[in-house]
């Protein structure tokens, strides 16, 4: 036998599962990481007392200006992110929510993730060195490049490492600095052939760059829209797809001759 519920009671009964779901979501851990602008480091200078780039087997130049690689900071892989954290970050301009698997490889322990990131950094440094020497037509048999950057993992500093090596060895090729004395920041992976690849968190990295004095930011071209989404005032975006394109853009910016691409 069926009985008919009054409208208020029906609404109340239907609302109970929704309330239960919201309560569960509020306290259940979610598969996200909270991210924010991280540290930056001038690859032409020192980091924690050690030169970032050390070159032997070839004469190097004294440089002016800065080439700052950028990072994001993320919550630890085992941090429990809840709905309240997500909602807070959603309305913040200096925080972002990213899928945990986009920040950390899934199914790995903290130690395994740290090992993975360290390996990615080592591979990125090797590719950056090879790309720079290839670009300058120099032999890796005669020139040794050591890159050292404490407490940073992943491959996204590759482009800035490469530009730093080129600036120290050759500058703009005409006796001037690639930076033109500016503070230039950026991000992007690189391979030995000089192809620049996309990375994550560029909107946060632009904020870190401007905070630390950069006026120009090199961004992988495919990520222009992300970089523009929270672009700080006073920061100029230059999209790049190759090492050659990045060098040409910086040379044009420094000399005032030629075109400088924009997002």
Automatic annotation (TrEMBL):
<dbReference type="Pfam" id="PF05362">
    <property type="entry name" value="Lon_C"/>
</dbReference>
<protein>
    <recommendedName>
        <fullName>Lon proteolytic domain-containing protein</fullName>
    </recommendedName>
</protein>
<dbReference type="GO" id="GO:0004252">
    <property type="term" value="F:serine-type endopeptidase activity"/>
</dbReference>
<dbReference type="InterPro" id="IPR027065">
    <property type="entry name" value="Lon_Prtase"/>
</dbReference>
<dbReference type="GO" id="GO:0004176">
    <property type="term" value="F:ATP-dependent peptidase activity"/>
</dbReference>
<dbReference type="GO" id="GO:0030163">
    <property type="term" value="P:protein catabolic process"/>
</dbReference>
<dbReference type="InterPro" id="IPR014721">
    <property type="entry name" value="Ribsml_uS5_D2-typ_fold_subgr"/>
</dbReference>
<dbReference type="InterPro" id="IPR020568">
    <property type="entry name" value="Ribosomal_Su5_D2-typ_SF"/>
</dbReference>
<keyword id="KW-0732">Signal</keyword>
<feature type="domain" description="Lon proteolytic">
    <location>
        <begin position="153"/>
        <end position="237"/>
    </location>
</feature>
<dbReference type="GO" id="GO:0005524">
    <property type="term" value="F:ATP binding"/>
</dbReference>
<dbReference type="InterPro" id="IPR008269">
    <property type="entry name" value="Lon_proteolytic"/>
</dbReference>
<dbReference type="GO" id="GO:0006508">
    <property type="term" value="P:proteolysis"/>
</dbReference>
<feature type="signal peptide">
    <location>
        <begin position="1"/>
        <end position="28"/>
    </location>
</feature>
């Amino acid at each position: 036998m069926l009985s008919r519920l009054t409208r208020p009671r029906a609404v109340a009964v239907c609302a109970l599962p929704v309330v239960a779901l919201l309560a569960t979501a509020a306290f259940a851990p979610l598969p996200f990481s909270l991210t924010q602008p991280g540290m930056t480091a001038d690859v032409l200078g020192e980091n924690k007392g050690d030169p970032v780039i050390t070159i032997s087997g070839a004469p190097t130049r004294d440089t002016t200006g800065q080439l700052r690689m950028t990072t994001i900071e993320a919550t630890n892989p085992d941090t429990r992110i809840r709905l309240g954290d997500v909602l807070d970050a959603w309305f913040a301009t200096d925080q972002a929510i990213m899928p945990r698997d986009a920040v950390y490889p899934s199914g790995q322990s903290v130690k395994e993730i740290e090992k993975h990131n360290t390996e990615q950094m080592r591979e990125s440094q090797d590719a950056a060195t090879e790309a720079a020497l290839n670009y300058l037509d120099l032999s890796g048999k005669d020139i040794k490049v050591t890159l050292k950057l404490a407490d940073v993992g992943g491959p996204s500093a590759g482009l800035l490492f490469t530009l730093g090596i080129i600036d120290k060895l050759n500058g703009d090729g005409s006796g001037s600095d690639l930076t033109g004395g500016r503070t230039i920041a950026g991000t992007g992976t690189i391979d030995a052939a000089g192809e620049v690849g996309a990375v994550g968190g560029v909107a946060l990295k632009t904020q870190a760059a401007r905070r630390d004095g950069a006026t120009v930011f090199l961004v992988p071209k495919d990520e222009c829209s992300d970089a523009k989404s929270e672009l700080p005032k006073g920061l100029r975006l230059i999209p790049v797809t190759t090492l050659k394109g990045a060098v040409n853009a910086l040379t044009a910016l420094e000399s005032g001759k030629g075109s400088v691409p924009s997002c």
